[in-house]
Design goal:
Layout: E1 2-7, E2 12-17, E3 54-57, E4 80-81, E5 86-91, H1 105-123, E6 130-137, E7 149-155, H2 160-176, H3 180-190, E8 202-205, E9 209-212, E10 223-227, H4 239-259, E11 266-271, E12 288-292, H5 306-311, H6 320-331
């Protein structure tokens, strides 16, 4: 079964991709499908014996450019659509034992350029409304392959969380005439939100990019990385901003790995402008990369339980200012 079903009680689409139950699950290094090809071993997804960054279509996609028809018939209440879209894999390195945090800044800059290129290319595909690069890292997150890699999804509509952000940004713009993320960045840099000048939640800052624990952090050590200037999407970044973004991402992930003395699991995702042409998204879209690590201590995870899963209301264990103070020294 591969199809999308509409939830009329929440105004959301849910994708069913039952073939993903059979995807490769935590293979040994010798059987890793993301490693480069080796003589005498089973074929992998990458035929080259060495590479830097590789992008290819996911073998077990949630969405496909030519999906099969749905298995069930729609009704006036229960809408059903084919699971149209794109799912790509971005492999960061041919070294199975490395991680995003271990990569040199030049390699991460290459990944930023790859993200921007795929956002532009997939976003130009008819029917694709939103493109999101992301990385799931660590078994606590549920990864099935440990080789350093991320993914890029091209969605047929704006996913629920970015859609909520856009609605909030539209309301803020209507109320103030300004971009909400621009206001957040300005407040954090000025220290106006809470505390002395210098920003009590800033963990890292360059001329063009800022990283901070958000005032409303849902996860104890959540960090947002945001261009200082209003940039709606990855392709809109100039060379200096891409350089700074790569360096900040490297230092944030490296700092995470120093936090508890192990490679910290996280979800990293880039939120940006929708790619459809239904309206002018630029004024309400401000690129930001969100990190959501599940650990609240070295031994304890922040589980999404009753309040979070059932109510969508997060309860967080660590104050953002205390988290930022701890991360600041590790990331600088």
């Amino acid at each position: 079964m591969t199809e999308r079903r509409y939830d009329p009680t929440a105004d959301e689409w849910v994708t069913f991709a039952t073939h993903r139950q059979d995807r490769t699950y935590l293979p040994s290094a010798d059987g890793c499908p993301l490693c480069p090809a080796r003589p005498g071993r089973a074929p992998t997804e990458v035929a080259s014996p060495a590479f830097q960054v590789v992008v290819f279509d996911n073998r077990f996609p949630a969405f496909a450019p030519a999906p099969p028809p749905p298995d069930v018939e729609p009704s006036p209440l229960f809408a059903v659509r084919p699971a149209f879209g794109r799912c790509e894999v971005v492999v960061y390195s041919d070294d199975h034992a490395t991680a995003f945090a271990d990569l040199p800044t030049a390699r991460i800059r290459m990944i930023v350029d790859v993200w921007a290129d795929r956002v532009r290319t997939l976003g130009a595909t008819p029917g694709i409304s939103y493109v999101m690069p992301f990385e799931n890292r660590g078994e606590a997150i549920g990864v099935t392959l440990t080789h350093p890699h991320g993914q890029i999804y091209g969605y047929p509509e704006v996913p629920p969380r970015p859609a909520r952000e856009l609605r909030a940004a539209q309301a803020h713009l209507a109320r103030t005439g300004r971009c909400v993320h621009c206001d957040v960045v300005a407040a954090e840099r000025a220290g106006r939100a809470d505390g002395p000048a210098g920003g009590p939640r800033i963990v890292l800052e360059t001329e063009t990019v800022i990283a901070f624990v958000p005032f409303w952090a849902r996860f104890p050590y959540e960090v947002h990385v945001v261009p200082v200037a209003h940039r709606p999407s990855l392709p809109d970044l100039d060379d200096a901003e891409r350089d700074d973004l790569a360096e900040v991402l490297r230092r944030v992930t490296h700092g995470y790995d120093r936090l508890f003395g192990f490679r910290l699991p996280y979800v990293m995702a880039a939120h940006a402008r929708p790619t459809d042409e239904t309206q002018d998204w630029d004024p309400v879209s401000h690129l930001h990369v969100e990190f959501a690590p599940p650990h609240r201590t070295a031994e304890k995870l922040k589980y999404l339980a009753g309040s979070e899963l059932a109510g969508g209301a997060f309860v967080t264990d660590v104050a953002p200012e205390r988290a930022a103070a701890r991360l600041r020294g590790l990331m600088r």
